[in-house]
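Progress report, Aim 2. The chain analyzed during this reporting quarter is listed below.
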Amino acid sequence: MNAETPTPNAARTPPIAAETAVPFGVNEVRLNAGQWLTTLVLTGLVALLVPRLWERLERFETGPDYRIPYELSKDYWLYARRLSQVAKPDKVIVLGDSVVWGEYVLPDGTLSHYLNQEAGTTEQFINGGLNGLFPLAQDGLVNCYSRSLRHQKLIVHCNLLWMTSPKADLSTDKEERFNHSRLVPQFFPRIPCYKADANERLSALVERPIGFLGWVEHLQNAYFGQKSILRWTLEDDGGDPPHYLNAYKNPFAQITLRVPSASRDDPQRGPKSPRHKPWSDTGLGTAQFDWVGLDSSLQWRAFQRIIRTLQGRGNDIMVLLGPFNEHIMSAENRPAYRKLRDGVRDWLACSNIPQVVPEVLPSALYADASHPLTEGYELLAKRILQNEDFQKWWKK
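Predicted structure tokens for the chain:
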């Protein structure tokens, strides 16, 4: 046999160990420390820059009497963007709940509109209200989405409606569903009626400081009917069998790069709306509110935190207290309300916070316990601007 001819045993030499090693994964891609760092940096840059670039690309048309549309009430990223636009030394921003926003009126029937009208200006007083808000939620809104308000003149509305009962105060133990739950304190101070699970609470906390997540919520609110893209795609018409209206639509076609505007003729608001009417034909009320004391009210403590936070940012604050619809209460219920109102006034005075407490409007100018009708806002604006303390604060 030739010495150079391989033997049968030599032909069966097993492969080296490296070739038989079990792969790390199906794609066999491993990142070293430097590659992981690069990935994290690039991801962070995208998350930081995309929302800022989006503000330049997306049209956001406002104009006089603008307010955040009702359908976008939970678009906190857009709310923060709006405040950044109007936070200027010559502006006075009015903050508050649906009383400031104007639940029963059109944009040209709100308090800020009539303050501008009576002052002979167009856009000095800005509507910074948000529909469905209340102090516990406004506390989160101020902390996380109102940071552009610094060294600014602010009118902050205090609505005692939120202390009319333990349920309104959110201090009852029975579970309650309420608006803007992602803005309220998730763990401390404890809200007894808020029963969300840990996942919901943690996701709300994580979302607040991360602008990219707020931007994602903005896309869902503005272009997909307050739904995630998955839920929007799988939305059905409720029929049997169901028809999936968006299953074959291109989701990117929904993004028009233009913030939706509110309808000029809102059928639910304004003098032509069936809702725009006095709360009573007689003007005589019998309501018995179970008022929550200031010493135990969660909403009142939240309002105090709001004021302190805004003061800490150097803002010049004027508190507008009421006017609550006293006509709706029974006569024996009014002393408890006035004691509560006077307690708020005393705290503001002790804290050296300017305040204006307008007299109660005529009964026919209220739509309910706290919301004026269009003529009510007009009269309220006149009374505010005639107030001597307000004039001193406004002109200084």
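The chain has a mean pLDDT of 92. Residues 65 and 107 are 6 Å apart (CA to CA). These observations will guide the mutagenesis work planned for the next reporting period.
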